[in-house]
Amino acid sequence: MSSPVPQKPAVQSSDAELRWIRKPTEQDEREYQTYRPPESFGEKVRRKTKANPMVPIGVGATTLILGFGLWQMRKGNTKMSQNMMRARVTSQGLTILALVLGVAYAGQAAK
């Protein structure tokens, strides 16, 4: 015959041990139930442009300068093309500066 399996005693827990467990409040329930659909590409571009408008301006200026410089290169105007390529590099640098300053400003405003 088999011997009986020993039973483990039931674990007794006190309220002090379970204090870290918190019952969800109504505010918690509202936060969890709030659903925000993912934003579309256009909505994200508008939001980011509103937050830091100098970056899209810098990107547009860089693109225009690059296009004009390439057009001058195709026409054979090497001096103007070289000047436009230098202006493009400057424009890119200013765009990066605007991006960094915008991020720094947003970080300061969040505090």
From TrEMBL:
Record keywords, A-Z: Membrane, Transmembrane, Transmembrane helix
Biological process annotations from GO: mitochondrial respirasome assembly
Chain intervals for the UniProt region annotation (Disordered): 1-47
GO cellular component, one term: mitochondrial membrane
Annotated Polar residues bias: 1-15
Entry's transmembrane regions: 54-71, 92-110
Domain of life: Eukaryota
Domain named HIG1: residues: 26-111
Compartments, record wording: Mitochondrion membrane
Keyword Membrane set for record: yes
Chief location bin: mitochondrion
Biased composition annotated in UniProt, kind: Basic and acidic residues: 16-33
PANTHER family linked to this entry: HIG1 DOMAIN FAMILY MEMBER 2A, HYPOXIA-INDUCBILE GENE 1 HIG1 -RELATED
Name the UniProt record assigns to this protein: HIG1 domain-containing protein
Species this protein is from: Ramazzottius varieornatus (Water bear)
